[in-house]
From TrEMBL:
Protein name from the UniProt record: Proline dehydrogenase
All copies of domain Proline dehydrogenase, residue ranges: 117-445
GO CC field: mitochondrion
Keyword Oxidoreductase recorded: yes
Cofactor section: FAD
EC number in record: 1.5.5.2
Entry's family note: Belongs to the proline oxidase family.
Length: 466
């Protein structure tokens, strides 16, 4: 019988020295607590956000939190699926202009290296530790039950090989746009039909051409001092994705360096056990484990009974996994015949409660000399700015130890917050943009919170000006 995950009765969570857990829980909903400023904070959470970005975000989040969202998604889906040149951004400059002036510029980093580099620099100027950059182009694949097929590319070796080569070159081009310490995000299905078919079959080793391509990407990433994670995908693909990614970590996450991270979806009931398996392998084999933790993005496609029954269960599981890893413990059961391995955790979430819990626990353990692992956090471009910018603003005084009188240890706990960016032409980004719209539809409360934060900042600026 498999051991069951148990939730600790009194999790070791510290919200801040000035705001203990009980106070924080009482002042905001557990599913999406607001990031309140500490008494030392001198700047409003969104004070550094450019006015143009603020107004665009206010407009879009207000629309997404209104009844306009559902028909807007229907229109965007029609544009995505249409074969008409009138609705193609690459063929109709008016359509391209409309999309770029609204949702593209808000959610995407740019169409070329010049635009992307400017966006990356803008993010770092705002105080973000770095960025995660991904190429938005996707392979044309459909899942039908337990089988997969590719619409256009089937049983044509030359086309399959070209898809892999284009995927490799696209990722290497993306890598050149980021710097040391930054991330890329990579989807294995982006390598085209050969990858889709191998993943759907559950092949534990990628096809030779894909293996060679991802090895070259790993070597280039390590040489540049950057990192990447492999995105989670539908359940039909995930066992093979885990196997391929573990093999990459086994090869490249050595000697204190973490080049590759795997993504775990906390809405899956098996997620804690899956992380336990990763920890056990890393501990026994002597490589470093990188985990990016998300809630999950494929609920419409995945097998429902493998997903937690309620959002509250998913939230509880997510926070339990984070606190366990930050305490150097397995979230499933005690590790057998091995010690906790060298590990890194990236908390990828728009949930303010989870961000607060993760950072406060990490901060507490560092300041008190307790064993922990490095923590980084991130949100998507154009989403949850009140969460990421709020955290940066709250602890901004501690970024300079000499001016604030803090010790180097205290200064080192300044939150490491990243922004996740997508790049590509307007047409290449259409599927990505549609997913962002659908994601906002499924998180109305969070979108309303963002809209309220943007309105509050807009009124604050008007008040200062007048």
């Amino acid at each position: 019988m498999k051991p069951k995950v148990f939730w600790p009765r009194k999790p070791e969570t510290f919200y801040s020295a000035s705001k203990p857990l009980a106070d924080a829980a009482a002042s905001s909903p557990a599913h999406n607590a607001s990031l309140h400023a500490s008494p030392a904070q001198k700047r409003a959470p969104l004070a550094d956000l450019p006015t143009k970005t603020l107004l665009r975000s206010l407009f879009l989040t207000s629309a997404m939190a209104s009844p306009l969202l559902k028909p807007s998604i229907a229109v965007l889906k029609y544009v995505v699926d249409s074969k008409s040149p009138l609705l193609s951004p690459s063929k109709n400059p008016i359509m391209n202009y409309i999309l770029r002036a609204t949702i593209y510029n808000h959610f995407c980093a740019g169409v070329n290296e010049t635009e992307v580099r400017k966006t990356v620099q803008d993010m770092k100027t705002l105080g973000f530790k770095g960025v995660i950059l991904g190429y938005a182009r996707e392979s044309v694949a459909k899942i039908d039950g337990a089988a997969s097929h590719v619409e256009e590319w089937k049983n044509d070796q030359a086309i399959e090989d070209r898809a892999v080569d284009e995927w490799k070159e696209g990722n290497l081009r993306t890598l050149r746009m980021v710097g040391k310490g930054d991330y890329m995000n990579i989807k294995f299905t982006g390598a085209g039909p050969a990858a889709v078919e191998a993943l759907a079959r559950g092949d534990l080793v990628p096809p030779p051409r894909i293996k060679q391509a991802i090895t070259e990407i790993c070597e280039a990433t390590a040489a540049q001092g950057s990192r990447f994670w492999i995105d989670a995908e539908q359940q039909i693909f995930q066992p093979a994705i885990d196997a391929w990614t573990i093999d990459l970590m086994r090869q490249f996450n050595r000697d204190g360096r973490v080049v590759v991270l795997n993504t775990v979806q906390a809405y899956l009931k098996s997620s804690a056990e899956n992380i336990h398996r990763h920890l056990t392998l890393a501990g026994k084999e002597g490589w470093a484990l990188g985990i990016k933790l998300v809630r999950g993005a494929y609920i419409q496609h995945d097998i429902r009974d493998r997903i937690h029954d309620t959002k509250a269960d998913t939230d509880r599981n997510y926070n339990h996994i984070v606190e366990s890893l930050l305490s150097r413990q397995s979230p499933f059961q005690e590790l057998q015949d091995t010690k906790f391995p060298d590990a890194r955790l990236f908390v990828a979430t728009h949930n303010a409660e989870s961000v607060r819990r993760a950072y406060s626990t990490s901060r507490h353990r560092i300041l008190n000399g307790l064993p922990t692992i490095p923590l980084e956090m991130g949100q998507l471009q154009g989403m949850a700015d009140e969460v990421s910018c709020g955290l940066l603003a709250e602890y901004r005084p501690e970024s300079d130890a000499s001016s604030s009188g803090k010790s180097p240890v205290e200064a080192s706990v300044f939150p490491k917050v990243f922004k996740c960016l997508a790049w590509g032409t307007t047409e290449e980004c259409l599927h990505f943009l549609l997913r962002r719209a659908v994601e906002n539809q499924g998180a109305v409360v969070r979108t309303q919170d963002t809209a309220a934060a943007m309105r509050k900042e807009a009124w604050r600026r008007i008040g200062l000006r007048w």
